Amino acid sequence: MGVNLIPLELPKLPYGAMTALLTAEAAAAFDELTTTGHDKLLAEQSADDWPNAFRVSRSILPSNTSRANRARTLAIQQVSKLFEQVTSSLH
Q1: Res 73 pLDDT > 90
Q2: Which of 10, 15, 24, 91 could serve as a FRET partner for 35 with CA atoms 20 to 30 Å apart?
Q3: Residues with Cβ < 8 Å from 36, sequence gap 6 or more?
Q4: Class of residue 57 by CB neighbours under 10 A (exposed 0-12, middle 13-18, buried 19+)
C-alpha cells in the first residue's frame, strides 16, 4: 500500500495541567449559556457534567491559566518535533 510506519512515542508531559485551560476555553464558548442561567436546563447536572465544569471554570485563577498555557506550549513544541520526523521520512 506504500505506507511506511514510523514508531513514535508521545513525550511525557504534564498533560493534566492543561485540563483546566481546556475546560475554561470550552466554558468560554458557552459563556452565554452559563451567564443567562440556561445551563440549568441541560439534562445532566452531576459534578462531572459540562454545566458544572463550565460554572467551576469561571473561578480559575489567572496563575493557573498561565501554568496551563506554558504546559500547552511545551506540548505543542514537542509534538511538532514528532510531526517533523514523520514529514521528513516522506521525502
Answers
A1: yes
A2: 15
A3: none
A4: buried
- 57 Cβ neighbours under 8 A, 6+ residues apart: 20, 23, 24, 26, 27
**To 5 degrees, how large is the angle CA 29–CA 60–CA 62?**
100
pLDDT grade for 26, boundaries at 50, 70 and 90: confident
Annotate 43-63 with DSSP letters as a single string.
S--STTSHHHHHHHHTT--HH
pTM: 0.64
Q: Is the pLDDT of residue 1 over 80?
A: no
How many angstroms separate the CA atoms of 68 and 81, rounded?
Answer: 20
Residue 39 in contact with residue 55, Cβ under 8 Å?
Answer: yes
Q: How many CA atoms are closer than 13 Å to the CA of 12, on its beta-carbon side? A: 0
Residue with cell 454545566: 51
